[in-house]
Please model this.
Amino acid sequence: MFAIRASGDRGHTQTPWLNSRHTFSFGSYYDPRYLGFSDLRVINDDVVAPAEGFGTHPHKNMEIITVVLDGELEHRDSMGNRGVIKAGEIQKMSAGSGITHSEMNPSLNNPVHFLQIWIEPNIDDVKPEYMQTAPSPQELKSQLVRIASPKSTDSPITLHQNAELYQTLLEQDKTVSFNIPRAQSLDTRRNRRRQPRRTPADCRRRGRRRR
Model:
């Protein structure tokens, strides 16, 4: 069964450095009606203040997709990856057998706005993996473009799960539609793992960044 959840009805976390909206239960926000949707566990809509962010923290057995909407997000992880994800770019980490990473706003003046999506994998303890892509605005204009899908496909980002992610930049007065194949079934009744308990305090690092 599908239901529309308005943006303003989502859970909310507000700290001096973080303004976050949660589609599903996350951290200190808990609602038994919204624990996830099948293997989709988290959709967080985050705005992080200048020179702030999530310090080094661990993950295991989760597909983590980050979509930067505005500003820049600096990423570092235990696989040796280090770089800045810019607006319009998309990053995926397969946490697999275990990683640590940090997500910081490198700007001293401007906030960064991004979505973070967590999907439970269909196989545990894989070797951790990092991917990044930057679809062109022209390619995304008023059409759905597949940006992530299972390992057996040719999407720019691949997932350890039977899941697909699509993106569009919708022009004014334009619409797009998506048809779910008739033979494709969706199990939303499966037993869920416990809700993600990462809180802003768990991975908070305050103060201006060292240059």
About this structure: The helical segments are 137-140.
